[in-house]
Amino acid sequence: MQFDLKTFLERGRTPYQTAFSLDLSGWDFPGYRVEAPVRVQFSALPTAEGARLTCGIEAETAGECARCLAPAKQAYAFCREWLVRPADLAGGELELPLLPGGLLPLDELVYQELVLEAEPLLLCQPGCEGLCPVCGRPKRDGCGCTDPQQSPSLDPRMAGLKRLLD
Fold first, then answer.
1. pTM of this prediction?
2. pLDDT digits (tens, 9 = 90+) for 59-108
């Protein structure tokens, strides 16, 4: 879906609003994926200087916990706003992903804003302790390795690291 920003700046006298769902499941996100459709509300209001654009985004990211590799999800609901003047289209410094002719691809705009908003490292729960460095099991499940009497022998490859820590 594209919004003709140039035409709106030139002739837009009435507000423009749209709401839609966007499938970003095939898009490349850094360290997570977006499985469910993203809900978007986009509006453009004419102002004395140009136009006020507003984009509300609701999405859920999914992936593996950065500490224990368990499945993790994070929900996001946020809104972005821009004030655009006709001179901004010619200046080339506009932070919107404009196509030639002043067209604004809303799918690309939503993708960029979601990448900026989303945490690059997902956690299964706040304060996740990760994996035990000795047995490799999630610490939240309890592994017994913290008790020196029950601790299995240290992996020989980790001995050098242990000497540095001691």
1. 0.79
2. 999 999 999 999 999 999 999 999 999 888 877 778 899 888 889 999 99
Residue type, 108: E
Q: How far apart are CA 144 and CA 132, in angstroms?
A: 10
- Count of residues making up the chain: 166
**In whole angstroms, what is the distance from residue 122 CA to residue 63 CA?**
7
- Provide the phi-psi class of 21: left if phi over 0, else alpha when psi is between -120 and 50, else beta: beta
3-class secondary-structure state, position 95? coil
Per-residue pLDDT reduced to its tens digit, 22-65: 999 889 998 899 988 999 999 999 999 999 999 999 999 999 99
> How far apart are the C-alpha atoms of 78 and 56, rounded to whole Å?
6
List, as own/partner pairs, every contact residues 53-56 make where C-beta atoms lie below 8 angstroms and the sequence separation is at least 24, other chains included: 53/5, 53/81, 53/82, 53/83, 53/84, 53/96, 54/79, 54/80, 54/81, 55/79, 55/80, 55/81, 55/106, 55/109, 55/110, 55/113
Pair 139, 130: CB distance under 8 Å = yes
